[in-house]
Fold:
Amino acid sequence: MNNNGRSTFSGITNFVQFTTNARLGPISTTLGSSSTSNGLVTFNIGTLTNNASVTQTIVVTNLSAGFYTNTATLSSIETPSLELNTDNNVAAVLSSVRGIADVTLTQSAAPGPVLLTSNLVYTITINNKGPSTATSLVLTDTLPPSVTFVSATNTLGTCSNVAGVVICDFVPLVNGTNAQVTITTIAATNGVATNVANVAAFEADFSPTNNSSTLLTTINPLADLSLAMTVSTNLVFVGSNVTFNLLITNQGPSSATGVVITNPLPAGATLVSATTTLGSTNLTSGVVAFKPRRHHEYGEHQFAGVGSGPGRQRGICHNHGHRIGTDASSISRHSSSPQLRNRRGRLECPGKLYPYQSGQR
Structure:
């Protein structure tokens, strides 16, 4: 406070009014005395000579967040008659007071792991541990590039998706309450999906480490394998060859790995040969096993078994009996590989076999 006039002013009083939100602390002045009453601080300065100044200090604590105006009004005995400019006798200060809110964020994903093309749902919970109400609350969730956004819901506000980033706004979240956001996606690419979520409020948060979360979810591949089988003939003579053709098809959407086709030989049949357009074959205890290499999505491969008797992986079986029996094949895959459907092929070969006679073909 300054006396910029040419005269001495006496009976000077400065009134400083605070809102009821303010709790007054230490008060000091370089001239005169002070007193308080219901948020009003009164400085009784007395006489102030020309070009003299006074410094007054008031320490306050705001009890709640918000915007508050404090007003100081200066007067003296000579003011009405000697002071021509009274506009600068009043000063007002607008203060923005931030609250303190410990906002926390947790998230989960279901199912985990998830199969390719299936729904992957993220659930994000935001808690306010106070002490103040959390305002201007915003959640930012960066979705992994391996998922496709479907929808987002918010129990206390709204959400929008912008190029794979989900942004949610909330109504004020009072101390001790929570809000939940549910984001539904579709697993589009197999691998590890990383979802990063972060929340922030206008209020000061002295524990920022619990405002964000990173979640890893495994997306497993998915393959739809089917197996079909045909036979060269269902009526064959003893000692003649019969060819069984097996066709395995992968309708995707993923490549199938660790694929094995097993084909037990019918009773009375002897394996002559087995070939495959992809992978390798082997015979163990009367069972022909075909091991294709990586079976790509939407691909198909043939296998043939040639035999005498019931017996294409291509396997030829030799029949020593009088009737062709039943040939059954099945597909299996490594435990970490995609799911399989239509995994079994079965072909019955009824008909009579006649004893081989000299000159017969």
Remarks:
- Confidence is low (pLDDT under 50) at residues 297-301, 303-327, 334-361.
- The first strand starts at residue 9 and ends at 17.
